[in-house]
Amino acid sequence: MPFVPIDYETLRVIWWLLLGVLLIGFAITDGFDLGVAALLPFVGKTDLERRQVINTIGATWEGNQVWFILAGGAIFAAWPFVYAVSFSGFYLAMFLVLAAFILRPVGFKYRSKKADPAWRQRWDWALFVGGFVPALVFGVAVGNVLLGAPFRLDGDLRTFYEGSLLGLFSPFTLLTGLLSVTMLVLHGAGWLSLKLEDGPVLDRAMKAGRIAAPLALVLFVAGGLAVAYGGMGYRLASAADPAGPSNPHLTGAVAAAGAWLDNYAAHPWMLLAPALGLLGPVLAFLGISARRHVLVFAGSSLANLGIIATVGLSMFPFILPSSIDPASSLTAWNASSSQGTLFIMLLVTVVLLPIVLVYTAWAYKVMFGRVGEAEVRQNPDFY
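Structure (tokenized):
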């Protein structure tokens, strides 16, 4: 193997962190697109009002989806075992998400092709589905990851998934799914507070945010209590070699109630993540009450960051545990690509990711501004 100046353990941790960054980036950027779409039929009562809402995300929603593609690509390249198990085992759920995603571009492009109110209303509900369903399914998926996925690996590392689409939905996973919906609806309301001119549409968005913020807080606390007292968690059966070969059979694991709290006892600084998850909805609610629109969006962004980081930090080094064969669980130490592959990918990321971030910031700066009824009527480029 050619000389690699960064040790294997460090590279694995870096790529575990980068995967978290990509997922959080997706939640903060495309998350408000999903939230706005889920709010569309409720905050926009007329066609003009709904066009106002749609055009708050019309200029940026396509670019925001890049974060989702990057996260999928990172899993494929850096964590091939995780990609193989999750994308094949959760195939029907993924198909459901992709079908909902397809409704978004079609809805944006076709809703205004006819002046018929019924035609436009149907596409508006399609956009709602395109926002609500992915938000729900992503949350359900996170709940299943915390519970453990029903897969096992044989002696040749072939994957056998023994679950079903309906099996993904349990009381706990529905709770995490609703938490995902409420935090993204809150985030959508935060984005609308930044992008809409004062008026009835903004007032309805703030009302929705005022409901979503305490709900997100309550559901996050309920989820934490369920994890703490619901018998969830996995531990490594023996000391793992962070620089060892990527072979799940070499790193056994066992189910252990309450194990998802181990990291917080060992590393108290990790408590910052759930603290942000609790603080974010509170700040957003205070921002709504004070009509401080930047505070609303900052609070909803912090909520997304804190809630997602809480899951990742709780589970480390686990990425995808197995509920039917804990010894097949995938971790940061046994499921990565080779040291050379991770290093080459890191070099590419160090060069390209700053370019993506700078271009994204520039695009938002150029296209930023509030959307009002007059602009929707006059601008021929609006949906």
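The radius of gyration is 21 Å. The longest helix spans residues 8-43.
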